[in-house]
Amino acid sequence: MQNHILSIILFTPLVGALVLLFVPKENKDAIRWIANFFALGGFLISLPLVPMFWSQINSPERFKFIEGVPNNWIPSIGAGYVIGIDGISFLLIMLTTLLGWISILSSWTAIEVRVKEYYVWFLILQTGMLGVFMALDFFLFFVFWEAMLVPMYLLIGIWGGPRKLYAAIKFFLYTLAGSVLMLLGILFLYFHHQHLTGVYTFSLTALYETAPKIYTDPAYGPTIATLLFFAFFFAFAIKVPMFPFHTWLPDAHVEAPTAGSVILAGVLLKMGTYGFIRFSLPFFPGVMWNPATFLHLTVRGWMIFLSIVAIIYGALVSLMQKDMKKLVAYSSVSHLGFCTLGIFALNAAGLSGSVLQQVNHGISTGALFLIVGILYERRHTREIAEYGGISNVMPVYATITMIMFLSSMGLPLLNGFVGEFTILQGTFMENWRWGAWAVPGVVLAAAYLLWLYQRVFFGTVTNPKNEKLHDLTGREVLTFVPLLVMAFWIGLYPKPFFKILEQPVNQIVQNVRAPHAGDAVNASVQHEITVAPVATTAAVINPTVPQGSAKGKK
Fold this sequence. Notes:
Layout: H1 5-20, H2 28-46, H3 49-55, E1 64-67, E2 83-85, H4 87-106, H5 115-134, H6 138-147, H7 149-159, H8 164-197, H9 204-210, H10 222-239, H11 248-255, H12 258-268, H13 270-283, H14 285-288, H15 295-319, H16 324-344, H17 348-379, H18 395-409, H19 415-430, H20 432-438, H21 440-457, H22 474-492, H23 495-513, H24 523-541
Antiparallel strand pairs: 1-2
Helix pairs in contact: 1-2, 1-5, 2-4, 2-5, 4-5, 4-12, 4-17, 4-22, 5-6, 5-7, 6-8, 7-8, 8-10, 8-11, 10-13, 11-16, 12-17, 15-16, 15-21, 16-17, 16-19, 16-21, 17-18, 17-19, 17-22, 17-23, 18-21, 19-20, 19-22, 23-24
């Protein structure tokens, strides 16, 4: 099983989708049970990966559990079925299997029309998301990346709200536009590798060796490398989404069914941040960090600027919302601004905090969309003004909501605090002004979430329609239990998560920040850089570890 654990996890949802094809569409209960069985099975099958990965956590290999060999799928073009994971993709895979099961479980009573098609497409979407995090072949990655578009488009366009077609088409066109630019970048790297080595291949491990050479290649140089960086940037920035590419997200969230919003916020948005970490940073280190030319100051400065704008803008717009779901949607723009800020801080603390915050966002914001969906199922409205005093009639629901609100706003002892604190630590190490501009986003998050809670849950029940609302059912409580456990676990004991991230994060930081290690002019700077990531990560894991001489300065 260990030799093929990733393939088993990857294709379990797809097997479930194929089984559903043979179930009569009139038998809705059987369809629901089978879909939930395979969704839960996909999560349970992924659990053995935890001890397997932990046993190899100190092995020197960059990627673990590798299956397949390069060029074995379509040899004529050099494409292969090659999958593998490191600590970053491991955490995102576990998040995907968990949220996939929770999303399908939450759909039990919410979906009543075209039930069979709904669950088939949802399971196919699950396979596509897992494939993105596992693929170690660029062609295979792009296939999974594009394969996710169709299921999500249909989930919004068929089972969405009143403006579902507008939202679905907008989502599709935005994402497709970014994907076309990324495809051009992939083809350039593909032919550049052949130019240097004589071999056509889409293997990531091979491209990691040749892609950074574009920056110093006499035939191309920094300008072409920068253009390539932005070709990938647009694809990933739209997916995150970063400001100003975010306009598709509120429409998609508001119109999508509850489970669609959970999986969209919890997993699909992480495709963009994952792309930055897996491709943009390793492929173009000279663009992001090259003290000899200072080009990195401009490119990196724009990345930081857009991240800070997203943090503040998303939070301010959330304060103005009258629709609960739209408020949570704009809060995602703000929270993911912290994730991109940590990525482009380009140090171990920032990157570790970013990946952990991506997991935290999936847990907390996924729960927030479930919370909104439960009220919507009972009242069929998301207008904040329609509610008030809900804690009097739904006390269990109000308690869970308060915990997840506190988690989302970053209260100590809950998961959001650990991620945001680590990101801000890494940001302050680079430039205290960046950190100072980002900090108000934490305060604003508390403002819009507490304001929402006060208006919906506190006071007396003033609307007669809310007087007889029933509290959570056992199935609804079950959807929240894993999320509550994870929120407290990460908040109280994050050490295992940082340990999982330590090796891949340090490797990325060292490769990015010292791409010209032979340059004597920058030798002292690079020596400090190569020491800083390890010390920083150790200090995050265990505050008692001294920082030593690692200052984290440029």
